[in-house]
Specification:
alpha+beta; transmembrane; Rossmann fold; membrane; WD40/YVTN_repeat-like_dom_sf; 5 domains
């Protein structure tokens, strides 16, 4: 076997290729190994059988880490080998270049999906071995310099991680700048991993700190050696100018690092960098005003969207199990390092429990909080007092105990094992019954809330239900893949299991199958119901925590773990989520955010409005429905009559009516409809050719204007009477009344017109090279805002000849609206952002959060809340009152205060990041 240093050694060598294969293909692999060696290629290949779950696995992992290419020998045996499958997963985690070669005929569906997508190199003809070998060498040597650089950065990243993120191992100087250019400019394969990107970002933060320290020393030195007043003045000015330039550069670097880390799934790191940028900006009142909106946007993204509150560092190996105490104040975790750790939920380590003879994989706390049960590699269940005293050792299983769970009354507990059995125990350790029937390892066991049933999930792809007395009740078929965890719903009416195929299987307790939940391409290794039973959280081998409603609607994906997520647990009050993972951490999350609330539709949300009288939110979508929403975010009514697509919507100023523009399937025309705000259909108003796109109420609420594909602006009374037609021409998208009701503006294909309604004539017109989609009058009527397809927002003072165009968006602008007091303007864009501007066009902030284009945006009546609607089927309700740097710093510091106080990997400077920040009431 070609050896590689163990995990705790610095990696000093690289390999051209790592070979993954089945032992049954050993003869071919030896021939290939010799061929590659003769061609001066270094090879990592293991000639010995790897015992499952042994130290050798880490050698295999490190071999993959240190190799430039991952070569997979495709054969029927390797395609069905779990060890080979695990090696592919490691290679994918490290973003290694995959090179599959096929030596025997194989069924495509047996092959790992990642390998199916790549062109195979055929070695199935022994007479053409040399020809195939040359093709292989060409593949291995493609972009060789880049691939080697990728591997070097990966090994440095891993060394840094293995040494507890030691700052002395970070990149510096030219090496750091080169790595940053790779990350930003390179789009080759293999891609860089999140861990690599975090390593580079952390290196940049450390480098920035060092530069600031040097600059401060330089300034002090210059001040100390000056003698003459003129010299002092001159040197002082130069030093101050350089200092200020360095501060601005540092702020910009921190802001960029925050944005990069957030996009790479490192939310706490992003928030830390954003807070550093914000605090430095607070200390630089002389900075260019254009710097403020950039920092504000970065910091706002982190504060709005960081769900992780803390991650608990202390275990030295993968963390598998975790459980909250009944009062929610403590948390216990189980790790492959052989220990249990008891934590306060603020992150403080309270106690380490050791006693298992090997790895620990699961833990459960009794309902009264007085006993901790743990399960592990040594085949035992151990019972502990929370103070660390070992109370009892339960023996009987013949292999690893994979899962343990207390009954709701705390008098019994169940354990599951790789030996295929489930044991029922009394709390005093008496074995009550051994349950058999599974044909594979049992991976999870769970009591129903009322204690009447027990469910077990197995690698045989089934869930079995048992009675309290151990009687076999029912077998629930799975999806022919391993089921890693099973849980009953809090009301006991259903149960769910996490599947290797990336779905959550769902049944009623009587065995009736319910629709599966989830659509992940990754294994789901863990799941948990929220205490109210409305949400299921699942841990995935993509390092994310996925949250779904029971109807299958995805609510969120929470990134942060740097390896597979092995366990998910909700706190008893549902406020927090604890997860464990293969990055040796326990992480604590809070979802949803206190300052931005998502609402989920079943289709693209095209329009949104707020009733100015009741505050009720109304939305329209691509499925032709209007939805009325409660303040809590649930749909109270779904309205639909003739429309199959809704393009525009407005609420009357008095809040009595809803006007809707859209497309009708039966007539093939664009129709305008009127509804009452309570959800009663009023009447159809008329048509606009093929499309009806926009509607608006007059300020007095007596008239409705509509536009569409026929080029006409039509005015109607709320009673349905046609009042006026204005011929704009072309396809029209947006329409709006001036605040005094005397004028009306219409926007469409490359043109905008302002009409005098009394005369029925055009007062002003604008011709552009791009389509204009939306418009909004300032509340005082002196300015018109315009949304343009050329990525710009227009501000047209009605005293000016032409608009002033604002740059910032990077895709079509779909919608604009002034705030009720006229001090701010919001714009929604296909670039997935909402931007806020001052009424004069100065940028305030860019709000990121939608995953696809943003179609519409509206202020509430008070102007403190903003509602955005997007193609990602979501409505986001933003609290705008927090959008000041000082407030965001206060909220961000309150969010991570436990993290700063308890995380042992932070530097002293990082721990002091929020020193002196006044705690704001909103942060509580």
């Amino acid at each position: 076997m070609v050896l590689l240093p163990m995990a705790n050694d610095a990696l000093k060598s690289q390999y051209h290729v790592f070979i993954s294969y089945s032992r049954r293909n050993k003869a071919f692999v030896k021939q290939l190994f010799e061929y590659l060696r003769q061609c001066d290629r270094t090879v990592w290949v293991d000639w010995e059988d790897i015992p499952p779950l042994s130290q050798w696995r880490d050698e295999i992992r490190q071999g993959i880490l240190a190799a430039d290419n991952f070569l997979f020998i495709l054969s029927p045996e390797s395609a069905n080998s779990m060890e080979c499958h695990k090696e592919v997963e490691w290679a994918l985690a490290y973003q290694k270049r995959l090179v599959p070669i096929i030596i025997q005929p194989i069924i495509d569906t047996d092959v790992h999906p990642a390998l199916r997508e790549i062109n195979w190199i055929y070695f199935d003809n022994p007479d053409q071995f040399e020809q195939s070998g040359q093709t292989l060498l060409q593949a291995l040597d493609t972009d060789l310099d880049y691939v080697r650089a990728h591997t070097r950065l990966l090994t440095k990243t891993d060394e840094w991680s293995q040494h507890q993120r030691d700052d002395s191992l970070l990149l510096r100087g030219q090496v750091l700048e080169t790595a940053e250019r790779w990350l930003i400019e390179t789009h080759k394969k293999p891609s860089f991993t999140q861990a690599q990107r975090e390593y580079v970002a952390t290196s940049r933060r450390a480098e920035t700190r060092r530069q600031r320290q040097r600059q401060r020393l330089q300034v002090l030195a210059l001040g100390g050696i000056t003698m003459a007043l003129v010299v002092v003045t001159g040197v002082g000015l130069v030093a101050e100018s350089r200092r200020r330039q360095a501060v601005v550069q540092g702020i910009e670097a921190l802001s960029a690092a925050s944005t990069a880390n957030f996009s790479l799934g490192n939310p706490l790191t992003a928030l830390m960098a954003g807070l550093q940028a914000g605090r430095q900006l607070q200390s630089a009142p002389w900075a260019d005003p254009e710097l403020t909106p950039r920092v504000l946007s970065t910091l706002a993204e982190s504060v709005y969207w960081t769900h992780e509150r803390n991650h608990l560092i202390g275990h030295s190996n993968w963390v598998f199990g975790a459980d909250f105490s009944p009062d929610g104040n403590q948390l216990v975790s189980a790790s492959l390092d052989g220990s249990l750790k008891l934590w306060h939920t603020n992150g403080e380590l309270l106690k380490t429990l050791e006693g298992h003879d090997g790895k620990v994989v699961d833990v459960s706390i009794s309902p009264d909080g007085q006993v901790i049960a743990s399960a592990g590699e040594d085949g035992t269940v151990r019972l502990w007092h929370p103070d660390g005293e070992l109370l009892n050792t339960l023996e009987g299983h013949q292999a690893w105990v994979t899962s343990v769970h207390f009954s709701p009354d705390g008098q019994r507990l169940a354990s599951a094992s790789l030996d295929g059995s489930v044991y029922l125990w009394q709390r005093d350790g008496t074995l009550l019954q051994q349950l058999t029937g599974h044909t594979g390892p049992v991976l999870s066991v769970h009591f129903s809330p009322d204690g009447r049933w027990l469910a077990s999930a197995s690698g045989d792809g089934t869930v079995r239900l048992w009675g309290r007395d151990g009687a076999a009740l029912q077998v629930l078929p799975g999806d022919s893949s391993s089921l890693f965890e099973v849980r009953f719903s809090p009301d006991g009416q259903s149960l769910a299991a996490a599947s290797e195929q990336g779905k959550i299987l769902h049944w009623q307790v009587d065995g009736t199958s319910l629709p599966t939940i989830g659509d992940s391409n990754h294994k789901l290794l863990a799941l948990a119901y929220s205490p109210d039973g409305r949400v299921i959280g699942a841990g995935s081998d993509d390092g994310q925590v996925h949250l779904w409603r029971l109807n299958g609607q995805r609510l969120a994906s929470l990134p942060g773990h740097q390896g597979s997520v092995r366990h998910v647990a909700f706190s008893p009050d549902g406020q927090f989520i604890a997860t464990t993972g293969e990055d040796n951490t326990v992480r604590l999350w809070q979802w949803p955010s206190p300052w931005v609330t998502p609402r989920f539709d079943s289709d693209v949300v095209t329009s949104v409005a707020v009733n100015p009288t009741t505050g009720q939110l109304v939305s329209g979508s691509d499925d032709g429905t209007l939805k009325l929403w409660s303040p809590a975010g649930t749909v109270t009514a779904t309205l639909q009559r003739s429309l199959v697509v809704i393009n525009g919507m407005a609420v009357s100023p008095g809040g009595q009516y809803l006007a809707v523009a859209g497309e009708a399937e039966e007539s093939g025309q664009g129709l305008v409809e009127l509804w009452t705000a309570a959800g009663q259909f009023g009447r159809p108003l008329g048509s606009h050719g093929q499309w009806a796109n926009g509607v608006a109420f007059s300020p007095d609420g007596h008239q409705i204007a509509s536009v569409g594909g026929d080029g006409l602006v039509r005015l109607w009374s709320v009673a349905g009477q046609s009042l006026q037609e204005l011929d704009h021409g072309g396809n029209l998208f947006g329409v709006g009344f001036s605040p005094d009701g005397q004028r009306l503006a219409s926007a469409g294909e490359q043109s905008l017109k302002i009409w005098n309604l009394a005369a029925g004539s055009v007062e002003r017109s604008l011709t552009t090279e791009a389509n204009l989609y939306s418009l909004s009058f300032h509340p005082q009527g002196h300015t018109l805002a315009i949304a343009s397809a050329d990525h710009r927002v227009g501000l047209w003072s009605l005293e000016s000849a032409a608009p002033r165009w604002l740059a910032g968006h990077t895709a079509e602008v779909n919608f604009v609206q002034f705030s009720p007091d006229g001090t701010r303007l919001a714009s929604a864009s296909q670039d997935q952002t909402v931007r806020l501007w001052s009424q004069h066009g100065d940028p305030i902030v860019a709000l990121a959060g939608h995953d696809e284009g943003v179609k519409a945006v509206r202020f509430d009546a008070g102007g403190t809340t903003l509602i955005s609607a997007g193609e990602d089927n979501r409505i986001l309700v933003w609290d705008l009152s927090i959008l000041q740097v000082e407030t965001l710093v206060q909220l961000g510091c309150a969010w991570i205060q436990d993290y700063l106080q308890t995380n042992p990997t932070l530097t002293e400077a990082e721990q002091q990041l929020c020193d002196g920040v006044t705690k704001d009431a909103k942060a509580d």
